[in-house]
Design goal:
The complex is a heterodimer of chains A (about 270) and B (about 280). Chain A has twelve helices and no strands. Chain A folds into two domains: about 15-60, no CATH class; about 65-270, MetI-like (MetI-like fold), CATH 1.10.3720. Chain A is mainly α. Chain B has about 280 residues and is mainly alpha-helical. Chain B has one domain (about 55-279): MetI-like fold, CATH 1.10.3720. Helices cover about 75% and strands about 0% of the residues of chain B. Chain B is globular, with a radius of gyration of 23 Å. Classes of the chains: A mainly alpha (about 270), B mainly alpha (about 280).
Chain lengths: ~270, ~280
């Protein structure tokens, strides 16, 4: 990865120094992560230099591993469900906060943003207690609830930014022409906010797909991918398979994050 | 009217139903005796008394705050020049660099921590590099399973959290301020100290908050790279809901962590208000 070293306004020496620092910082950020795909192709159980040789063997093992397949299925189920619900909640809460603006809508948007201020472990145990009290116990449903809480702040903020960017005159014109709130929302606001909805959905999906600690507390009989990986970390023998699996997860995350960013930008330019 | 009900329904279920209800339940449980049942029995403050009086818990709490504090300091200091560079010198590469910096945040946290285990292990990348270049005669055990490993790993994992708020604060700074300072004869360092730093101050406070909160309760990093010397409060809470099976005590520890966080937020708010009144 190369960085464009072109200072914008003045090509002062301090600017070049700063860009050099940014470059080093990005190397620090990405180098450890790049080791995972690197060693996933290495023909050795140990993750150490020098590299032994190139192999696809770990990926082949991965394909035929039933535990991985089940965990992937659970992760997709949990991720898609919680992302869909978190997006719907994000839309409604942001809509109330931007267009209705009463005390209750402000309280709600404050409450759903609270999980940012609470460490994951505590959200996990809180959901565990609730799940046991309600009677569903540790299960995929409980994980979905936890992941909605975790994703809410992001989806509300993305939708809030989009709704706030819509000129006031548009809903006013619709109301003058006799559109009811529901019509206004369905025919005008939601189509205008479609890219933001896609972006919010993807961010919520990623949050859930990569989340470990809440799922760790709430996993019943079906682990999600990160919980499955955590279980495998104890066995040195399965290390290369974990790295192959990790590389696939990294690739999926990067692709979804890039797509989400592109969609969001397109929505801003439109 | 029906529409309004529909709009408020999801938020009400989530905000009141899940957030408020579950946190109240945790607080409720913290004041109960442990009798093995889900909600415990009787009323007691003994869970909190144990936390306050048992030196073991004081030590772990202090260690959590110190390690998270060090990680926060390292993260914010390393992130500041990056945020400054993007905001002031970014130009048309601003969005690209900002995206590159935040991209790792959307990849698995577990995998990012695990990557550091590969780097720091006895037969890991750092050791094979140092032995290969002749800087060390044999691999060192001094990297993995130390508090220092926890600080480095946390600082790496939470880097994007610090950059964004500082960048947002600096982005709103008009460049004419720096030009005016230069015209009036201020040296670059003076201009930085008198203009840039105060301008970025709210962003720095936010950065401190959003890095410290998740790190102080972190479970994965101490467990994977910390070793027995760096058990933190998150691991302790997990233990109460796992092997120790003392849910009320675990709930009390959680309430204590949330109180510490609330205290920190209040302190930062006050610092910010004080700073603004002096300007």
């Amino acid at each position: 990865m190369r960085l464009p070293v072109i200072p914008a306004r003045q090509s002062s020496s301090s600017g070049i120094l700063l860009w050099a620092y940014v470059f080093c910082y990005l190397v620090f950020l990405y180098l450890p992560i790049c080791l995972i795909p690197l060693f996933s192709f290495n023909d050795s159980i140990q993750a150490a230099f020098p590299l032994k040789g190139f192999t696809f063997a770990w990926y082949r093992t991965l394909l035929h591993n039933e535990g991985v397949r089940n965990a992937l299925f659970t992760s997709l189920k949990v991720g898609l469900t919680s992302a869909a619900l978190a997006t719907i909640c994000g839309i409604t809460i942001a809509y109330a906060d931007v267009f209705i603006r009463n005390r209750f809508s402000k309280l709600l948007s404050f409450l759903v943003k609270l999980p940012i201020l609470i460490p994951g472990v505590i959200i996990g145990i809180a959901m565990l207690i609730v799940a046991n009290l309600v009677g569903i116990g540790p299960s995929a449903g409980a994980i979905i609830c936890g992941h909605i809480l975790l994703a809410m702040p992001a989806t509300v903020m993305v939708m809030h930014a989009r709704f706030a960017g819509i000129s006031r005159s548009i809903p006013e014109a619709a109301e003058d022409l006799g559109a009811r709130e529901w019509t206004l929302m369905r025919r005008i606001l939601l189509p205008m906010a479609a890219p933001a909805m896609g972006s919010a959905f993807m961010l919520a999906f990623l949050t859930s797909f990569d989340e470990f600690i809440i799922a760790f507390f709430l996993t019943g009989s079906q682990p999600t991918l990160p919980v499955y990986i955590w279980g495998q970390l104890r066995f040195p023998r399965s290390l290369p398979i974990v790295m192959a699996l990790g590389s696939v997860i990294l690739a999926v995350s990067v692709v979804v994050a890039v797509l989400s960013e592109l969609i969001r930008r397109r929505g801003q330019n439109a | 009217m029906l529409f309004r009900c529909g709009i408020f329904l999801p938020g009400t279920v989530l905000g009141l139903g899940l957030v408020v209800f579950s946190l109240s339940l945790v607080t409720f449980l913290a004041f109960r005796h442990n009798d093995g049942s889900l909600l415990g029995s009787g009323w007691t403050a003994s869970n909190f008394l144990t936390i306050l009086t048992d030196p073991l818990y004081a030590r772990i709490a202090l260690r959590s705050v110190m390690l998270a504090g060090l990680a926060t300091l390292a993260t914010v200091m390393a992130a500041y020049p990056v945020a400054y560079c993007i905001a002031v010198h970014g130009g048309r590469y601003r969005k690209l660099v900002l995206f590159l910096v935040t991209l790792p945040f959307w990849t698995s946290y577990l995998l990012r921590v695990f990557a550091w285990k590969i780097v720091l292990a006895y037969n890991g990348v750092l050791n094979s590099f140092l032995v290969g270049t002749g800087l060390l005669h044999e691999p060192s055990l001094a990297f993995l399973n130390t508090p220092a490993a926890v600080v480095v790993t946390l600082a790496h994992a939470y880097a994007p959290f610090a950059i964004l708020p500082i960048y947002t604060a600096l982005e709103s700074m008009p460049s004419s301020l720096l030009e005016a300072a230069a015209d009036l004869g201020a040296r670059p360092l003076t201009a930085f100290r008198r203009i840039v730093l105060p301008y970025s101050f709210p962003g720095v406070l936010t950065a401190i908050m959003v890095v410290f909160i998740p790190t102080v309760g972190d479970y994965v990093t101490p467990a994977l790279v910390g070793g027995p010397q760096s058990v933190m409060i998150g691991s302790l809470i997990e233990m109460q809901f796992g092997r120790a099976n003392d849910w009320p005590f675990g709930a009390a520890l959680s309430v204590a962590v949330m109180l510490v966080i609330a205290g920190l937020i209040a302190l930062l708010r006050k610092t910010e208000a004080g700073k603004e009144s002096r300007l």
